[in-house]
Known about the structure:
The chain is built from four helices and six strands; from the N terminus they run ααββαββββα. The chain has 134 residues and is an alpha+beta fold. It has one domain (2-131): Nuclear Transport Factor 2, Chain: A, CATH 3.10.450.
Amino acid sequence: MRINQNRRTIEKIYAAFAAGDVDVVLAAMAVDVDWESLGLEELPFGGNYRGVEGVARFFDAVAAQEEPLEFEVEEFVVNDTTVVALGHEQMRVHSTGRTYRSPWAQVWTLRAGKVTKFRAYMDTAAMRAAHEPQ
């Protein structure tokens, strides 16, 4: 069943992310993937990224700016083409040394077993405050 396959694909992505294996994450992307973390356009990793190379640039930009202290998926909501993951994170910002905590929702759209669209929603005010120089 496609619903279970889509969930397994997204679970594999999260497991690879947790292990630091971005290559596995990138292999799950469609060549024309549309990737966006909404409301973060002013941060170095904010905005919209297109294609597998764009997603790779996103992960490079995040790694240059932040260190994950905690990243946990709490729940999945799945239908035929979409997986919504609900969770939370705590991150340390390299440039300021500050941390932030944020609940998040990440919406994954899949076609033929590949991610075609990703949207992330989180506490953007907390992120901005942690990144802002004093």
